[in-house]
């Protein structure tokens, strides 16, 4: 009987769908039963062999079976699609409870940090920042600064020469001459000059390349007490308000009078310790009133204006401020060192 066959087909489809786990299986079952050569389709084709009386009834039964089977297939298809989606969601799940990965960001090198602090202190006092060439002429490095011909720094052994007259600057002071020459005669100047300088030295406190910061003020009626007050303010800003400052007579060819400036030891506060060689003091910079010859050599009139200048090593300031005992650490790029700043 055709009607029995219909029931068998429905049951078979149901059975096979239960076992299938992939969309392709469902598609195969669809073809097998409802496709052009499918089993239900061939039942439909066999209707023509039935009597006119039976044909509509059986035809209706086949059609409704087709709808039922389509319903099974569609339901199974939806189920499988949902399962595929759920599996995809599960496999792509992000565990938001895991801590994020911190990107490694760089930070300022301790030498830049101290240089910036030093610059800030001087900018607040009204200085401007200028920079000059590291490859310098003997003329600016020595001659314009009143160095005598036989000064030891002019010796090939102490400075790095490129030719007889061209060398790597040994200090930032040539910018004193360049700055004065760049101005109208007797025009006031107030600048600091940060930058690299070069000397033939290498040990725990000396590097052949290091940094200095120069300062120069020229104007009418500048007094030594202006120099003292300004440097005291600067040093207390960098090393703290408790810092004591002392001036000792010294000599530089380009300043007169000249002084070496000491601060009370940052380690022992002046008691005396290994760092300050038990003196309680640390030498920190050189300074003085601009030598009249320097003014003259660079187009200024020492009878009309005067000024002061100072120069200090940036590494030395950083070493004392941060308690670093070997200057070479600044250049070795050891992250264990750098990450402390
Ligand atoms: N140029 C001097 C040095 O390198 C420092 C200095 C600068 C001294 C300005 C006095 C005035 O030692």
UniProtKB/TrEMBL annotation:
Key words of the record: Aminoacyl-tRNA synthetase, ATP-binding, Cytoplasm, Ligase, Magnesium, Metal-binding, Nucleotide-binding, Protein biosynthesis
Pfam families cross-referenced by the UniProt entry: Phe_tRNA-synt_N (PF02912), tRNA-synt_2d (PF01409)
Record's cofactor remark: Binds 2 magnesium ions per tetramer.
Catalytic activity: tRNA(Phe) + L-phenylalanine + ATP = L-phenylalanyl-tRNA(Phe) + AMP + diphosphate + H(+)
Subcellular location per the Swiss-Prot or TrEMBL entry: Cytoplasm
Binding positions for Mg(2+) per the UniProt entry: 256
Needed co-factor(s): Mg(2+)
A GO cellular-component term linked to this record: cytoplasm
Start and end residues of each Aminoacyl-transfer RNA synthetases class-II family profile domain: 114-320
GO annotation, biological process: phenylalanyl-tRNA aminoacylation
EC number from the UniProt entry: 6.1.1.20
Gene3D superfamilies with a match to the protein in the record: Bira Bifunctional Protein, Domain 2 (3.30.930.10)
Assembly information from the UniProt record: Tetramer of two alpha and two beta subunits.
Similarity-based family: Belongs to the class-II aminoacyl-tRNA synthetase family. Phe-tRNA synthetase alpha subunit type 1 subfamily.
Protein name as it appears in the record: Phenylalanine--tRNA ligase alpha subunit
Gene: pheS
